[in-house]
Design goal:
The complex is a heterodimer of chains A (250) and B (495). Chain A has 250 residues and is α/β, with parallel strands linked by helices. Chain A contains 13 helices and 8 strands. The chains are: A alpha/beta (250), B alpha/beta (495). The interface between A and B is large, with 81 and 75 residues.
Chain lengths: 250, 495
């Protein structure tokens, strides 16, 4: 199995350890992984803020870059949601027929990490070991955007030593929302405070998710408030073994 | 005892402050936030359990969406049919292009009746056209008869929700308002006692004022009938006791057939109040001699609706049946309540409806009053894809900004314009990452975290830290790792 990793702009810059974990995890599972050096961003930030032309130019770039790729894996549910939900309209409005065709053939080959593991590789037990109490935060784009369903829970259930702590109000947004977090910083912070209460109430050591953007938000507040908890991308949990345990990185 | 109207919100989109500013007094009001969160959590839980018992909920949503879409796509036909049938049944239909016309039509009708007082059943549309202050200025006092609207009118408050307008007011605040305005010194805050106080107040109005104004939940094209659903029965009193009835309705409220109510009423009550059926459903068609109002007028209001209708992606906004499920589930509304939206239509539906009704000349901050979490779309009984419309409107706001040179001074605006250049070539992006690491390094403390940033970054760090940028990006790690390596030794932390 060959796959190409789209790391996403913010993971590349802020969370390279997530990318390294994906590499380790997928290579351990026998995937022949490659990385396109020209990749940058999917355009989500621009699209969600209303910069449609800019978002389109990034969408076009993404489609051109990956059109010949067998499978694309993306460890960020919101970027996958961007591609699935917003690219069609952007390309229809601003693109041409050729680009539309290229996108249509590429789309079914794009996978979020947990989708890739379960739907494409057919594995739930990835051989991970992570002896900690962990609560899973369902990011809105993972939950309602690309309908990950119980995939994250099935993956976590097979991690040896891991104790899952259910998160109350699982379907409630953490308040990040991309530029919303600074355009409406006060409301975003109020939403974050409520979410953090729920997260801390689980008594977990780690809060995990399939999207580092929510984790940046939650982790930033945990650090500010000395919450005694850390965040970790699920790729790092799944990559972790007894021999090479994942350090907490936030 | 704090009065709910202490900080008077502005529900006029032409005057209201932008959302990020409007939320500040609310976020500093713990009592109000507690009232809002408690109220919508209760409604949400009731809704969820009643939706769960419907095995055909998704089919009902699809049917409702199809009915509303069809009605809107053939709106002209159905409105004309409604006018014909309503007129044949003894009603009179008036057409109002905008708020000013609608207000004048209603005032003229009231003057024909020589009315100095009028009773009203809750109508958000009348608040949209700011009818009450206009009537007051022209010598007609409007008495609200919906319990929540009475609380707000007597307490000089503004609605913060379209189904439960006084949701931000709690029982002890209601007691204070009633005690003060009705002269009832010994009133307790027992709901029964409060309800009885309102009942006594209302009965006098119902029995003495012969003219009424209502809104409409639906207009039935097939029969010319008008439908109002409510919980208290005060609406039923308003609709049956007066001699003259004036109904104000947005043109989008039309349903093609009577039987469409079968779908709509199942969805509306469950979505709005978490009930299987709302207690009172009133349907009246024209005039019936000797029974109910003998003069009946319908004022059909456009006020920006036809410009929404003309645009294919925006049109779905008008499918709304005003159930408020979107605001009850909205994590933003849960923190802010309704007043911050600066419009009689708050929450996610308000965030898309208000700027469109204003033809994008006002309320440009509202499409950004959402984290795009998608919860509103999931619960909407008529499947309005609110996030999709929010994004359409955001693109329009940015297109406006592009034409305003002054706005380019906004750091968010040029930040995103520059970011687009950075993302256009990998080498530019990588260079920017390098400069970013140097720049942010100046703000990174010994613990490896950034605690304070200037400008837009300060909006982040006012409540959140940011981990400092790691020394190596992923792509440079990938480039540096040997072809034989499997990444194992490098998986751990970033220290």
């Amino acid at each position: 199995m060959r796959a190409s990793l789209f790391i996403t702009c913010y993971n590349d810059t802020l969370y390279p350890e997530t990318g390294r974990a994906v590499v380790r995890l997928l290579e351990r599972l026998g995937v022949e992984l490659d990385f396109h050096p020209k990749q940058t961003c999917c355009g989500q930030m621009h699209a969600n803020t209303g910069f449609r032309c800019e978002a389109f130019s990034q969408a076009k770039r993404f489609v051109r870059l990956y059109q010949d790729t067998e499978t694309v894996v993306i460890p960020s549910s919101s970027c996958v949601a961007m591609i699935r939900d917003q690219y069609p309209a952007l390309i229809e409005e601003l693109g041409n027929e050729e680009l539309g065709h290229q996108f249509a053939t590429l789309l079914p080959r794009i996978f979020e990490l947990s989708e890739f593991l379960i739907d494409r590789l057919g594995v739930e037990d990835v051989g991970a070991y992570f002896p900690h109490r962990v609560t899973y935060h369902a990011s809105c784009h993972g939950l309602r955007g690309i309908h990950l369903g119980d995939r994250p829970f099935r993956l976590l259930a097979k991690v040896r030593g891991l104790d899952q702590a259910p998160l109350p109000n699982l379907d409630r947004c953490c308040g990040f929302g991309g530029t919303f977090s600074v355009k409406n910083a006060e409301v975003s912070s109020a939403m974050l405070a409520v979410k953090l209460q729920d997260v801390v109430s689980t008594g977990a050591e780690y809060c995990t998710a399939l999207d580092n953007s929510c984790l940046m938000h939650l982790g930033g507040a945990m650090h500010r408030q000395y919450a005694g908890m850390k965040t970790i991308h699920m790729a790092q949990i799944l990559a972790s073994t007894e021999e090479f345990p994942a350090e907490a990185t936030l | 005892m704090s009065r709910p109207a202490a900080t008077h919100p502005v529900l006029d989109p032409t005057l209201a402050p932008p959302f990020p500013q409007a939320v500040l007094p609310v976020l500093r009001n713990p009592q109000l936030r507690k009232n809002v969160a408690h109220a919508i959590d209760v409604i949400q839980a009731k809704r969820a359990s009643l939706v769960a018992e419907k095995t055909d909920w998704q089919e009902l949503r699809s049917a409702a969406s199809a009915i509303r879409t069809h009605a809107l796509e053939n709106l002209g036909t159905y409105l004309e049919q409604f006018e014909t049938r309503c007129t044949a049944a003894g009603g009179t239909v008036h057409w109002a292009a905008d708020a000013a016309q609608a207000r004048q039509i209603i005032l003229d009708l009231l003057r024909q009746e020589k009315a100095s007082e009028v009773i009203k059943i809750k109508t958000m549309t009348s608040a949209e056209i700011q009818l009450n202050p206009f009537l007051e200025a022209n010598g007609v006092h409007a008495f609200e008869t919906d319990l929540a609207e009475i609380i707000l009118q007597l307490g000089e408050g503004e609605p913060s929700h379209i189904v439960v307008p006084a949701l931000h007011v709690n029982r002890s605040q209601v007691r204070e308002i009633f005690a003060r305005t009705m002269g009832l010194k010994d009133l307790s805050d027992d709901p029964k006692v409060l309800t009885n106080a309102a009942r006594t107040y209302l009965r006098k109005k119902f029995l003495t004022i012969p003219t009424a104004i209502s809104g409409a939940n639906f207009l039935i094209a097939e029969t010319g009938g008008v439908v109002v659903v409510e919980s208290e029965g005060n609406g039923r009193m308003c609709l049956t006791l007066p001699q003259t009835m004036i109904t104000l309705a947005g043109i989008e409220k039309v349903l093609p057939r009577f039987q469409d109510l079968e779908v709509m009423l199942q969805l509306l009550a469950r979505s709005a109040t978490g009930e299987r059926m709302n207690p009172y459903t009133s349907i009246w068609t024209g005039v019936t001699p000797g029974d109910g109002p003998q003069k009946f007028h319908v004022v059909l209001l456009d006020n920006g609706r036809s410009s929404i209708l003309a645009r294919s992606k925006h049109r779905q906004t008008l499918k709304c049946i005003r159930c408020a499920a979107c605001m009850n589930t909205c994590p933003v509304y849960r923190q802010t309540g309704g007043h911050a939206y600066g419009s009689v239509y708050p929450g996610p539906i308000g965030a898309i409806l208000t700027p469109q009704l204003m033809q994008m000349h006002h309320a440009q901050s509202l499409p950004y009053a959402s984290s795009l979490c998608g919860a509103c779309y999931e619960v909407c009984p008529v499947k309005i894809n609110i996030p999709e419309v929010l994004l359409e409107l955001r693109a329009e706001v940015i297109d406006q900004e592009r034409k305003q040179p002054g706005r380019a001074l906004d750091p968010m605006y040029w930040g995103l314009r520059i970011a687009n250049v950075l993302f256009s070539r990998a080498w530019i992006f990588h260079t920017a990452q390098w400069f970013g690491r140097i720049g942010l390094g100046l703000f990174t403390r010994k613990d490896g975290w950034i605690h304070s940033l200037p400008s837009v970054g300060g909006k982040w760090t006012q409540t959140r830290d940011l981990r400092g940028l790691p020394n190596q990006t992923f792509h440079s790690w990938w480039a540096s790792r040997g072809p034989q390596s499997n990444g194992v030794e490098l998986i751990g932390g970033t220290k």
